[in-house]
Amino acid sequence: DIQMTQSPPSLSASVGDRVTITCRASQRIRSYLNWYQQKPGKAPNLLIYSASTLQSGVPSRFSGSGSGTDFTLTISSLQPEDFATYYCQQGYNTPYTFGQGTKLEIK
Amino acid sequence: QVQLVQSGAEVKKPGASVKVSCKASGYTFTIYDINWVRQATGQGLEWMAWMNPNRGNTGFAQKFQGRVTFTRNTSISTAYMELTSLRSEDTAVYYCARGLVGRGSGTYFADYWGQGTLVTVSS
Fold first, then answer.
1. What gap in Å lies between CA A86 and CA A99, rounded to an integer?
2. Which residue of chain A is at minimal alpha-carbon distance from B62?
3. From B58's CA, which of A19, A92, B81, B89 has a CA 20 to 30 Å away?
4. Measured between CA atoms, how close is A63 to chain B, in angstroms?
5. Interface contact flag, B47 A101, Cβ < 8 Å
């Protein structure tokens, strides 16, 4: 199975900050990487697929980059509604494993 | 609009089985996969399986082999996940999600999710 490792596990930031979350795959996965946002008590919400393609309806302050084994999710200017947990997922092969999550908290 | 509506919370004893349903609407059920993902309280997401509702074939994480069955009823656009020999570690919220390969991109992802079904295993 492909292991996905996210860093940091948690992050404190303020509204307006630029933040970056990283995700590393245990083997090369081309650009087959997805990002989800999850708020407490809610189902995950797809933000980005194919490493950098923004899902319809997702604000443009979210962006993704990377290929191979190293990927990043960037939020250019944090808004109050962005405080949540973020997960990466490899979409390369079964099982489609997730990273352990990065919890983004208000400083 | 696309919706996935799951069955309600369940409480089961160790060793029992549970069957969770996921009713799809707003799209053609047989065109997209159904994924199952679970999340223990306070923990991360754990991908379990995909199922093709058209052909009924599945792919799933090895740890669930032998304990999980995925079925569907295309006439009512509903997918089912049955987990047997339940143990306390199976206590989690179980999500279904619509799965697909991105057009022109090749990556597999889940774009719409059900609301989740809490399964509690307790004696």
1. 9
2. A95
3. B89
4. 17
5. no
User: How far apart, in whole angstroms, are the C-alpha atoms of residue B29 and residue B61?
Assistant: 23
- Name which of A33, A34, A44 is nearest B113 (Cβ-Cβ): A44
**Nearest to A47, CA basis, from A72, A80, A15:** A72
d(CA B47, CA A97): 6
**Residue carrying structure tokens 């987990």:** B83
Q: Residues A21, A72: contact at Cβ < 8 Å?
A: yes
> What is the residue-level pLDDT of chain B in tens, covering all 123 positions?
999 999 999 999 999 999 999 999 999 999 999 999 999 999 999 999 999 999 999 998 999 989 999 999 999 999 999 999 999 999 999 999 999 988 777 899 999 999 999 999 999
Nearest to B63 by CA among B48, B45, B82, B43: B48
Nearest Cα neighbor of B33 from B52, B47, B55, B59 is B52
Q: Which of A37, A106, A98, A43 is nearest to A73 (CA)?
A: A37
